[in-house]
Amino acid sequence: MTRIIVIRHGQTAWNEGEGERFRGRANLDLDEKGIRQARATAARVVQREIAAIYSSPLKRALSTASILAEPLKLQVQPLDDLIDINYGRWQGLSLKEAAADDNRLYELWLKSPHLVTFPQGESLEQVQKRVVSAVQSLMPQHFGQTIILVSHKVVCKVLFCSLLGLDTSHFWQLQQDPCAINWVEMGENALAIVSLNDNCHLKELK
User: Fold this and answer.
1) CB 172: neighbour CB atoms within 10 A?
2) Which residue numbers are catalytic?
3) pTM for this model (two decimals)
4) What is the pLDDT of residue 206?
5) Could you state, in order of their start, the residue ranges of all structural domains in the chain?
């Protein structure tokens, strides 16, 4: 059995309130709160015996992964298939700007996200295929071990849709907070989701 800890990166300036934007492939770093979130997460996972840490190649994920890796004395291994969704033309737009650009598509995204392919970008199904493939390729390399994957909200949500046997129409029904911890145990013919969107270690930061 392979134990996988899936962690969303910490907060950035584009994650919160009126500053929220379609982040996608934008190479943002963590803000001050995001750094504190990552440190609190590191204090939690250091209690485990971790064999490897894989990360999306984007800064906000790599920075989070590096903070996790330091007390574990591990090197972060970037993995392209963990990169965030490609929002195409909408990358960097605020929610209001996206709605103004194409209100029909924006409403479809809110109501039926599985039907959306972003202009010059990806669909949720495309993201799901690559992340599931990445996880499947890591399992035999780490049989009997625990590994950490650091990625993004969209990537984490579509991965867990797949693990729960749900299609991506259920995308909005899953929550993934910054630096939330998800714990999965995967065997050849068995799968158990031990925890989902666990953010207990971040309570004192709120």
Assistant:
1) 13
2) 9, 152
3) 0.95
4) 67
5) 2-205
